[in-house]
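WARN retry 2 of 3 for item q-0093 after timeout on previous attempt; input resubmitted unchanged.
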Amino acid sequence: QVRLVESGGGSAQARGSLRLSCIASEYSVRTGSMAWFRHAPGQQREGVAAIDSMNLTMYTSSSRNRFIISRDDAKNTLYLQMNTLKPEDTAMYYCAAKTLGLRSLLLNEYNYWGQGTQVTVSA
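OK item q-0093 returned
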């Protein structure tokens, strides 16, 4: 049974940094496509960054140049390095994995989800 467990969330001040981790079980981060999504209160869940088996990445206009998605194949772990944080980055962040296809920020393409980790950024 595939399991994704996020960690690394917490509180940060604006312009600070946080690194999120997602440890996968029964799923290979090396051969799959994975992504980070976030869900803020009153808003829809949205994509943040994605990566595929060829290490090709995808970002949104909001995350590009501030966030970096990466993976450690030996640790079977996905990361999201978040820099220059803004209050509008406050949200629950979710790790997601898919069984088929290339990197994507489309919600419905992902089969597996973690439980989320909260990120709160203060001004």
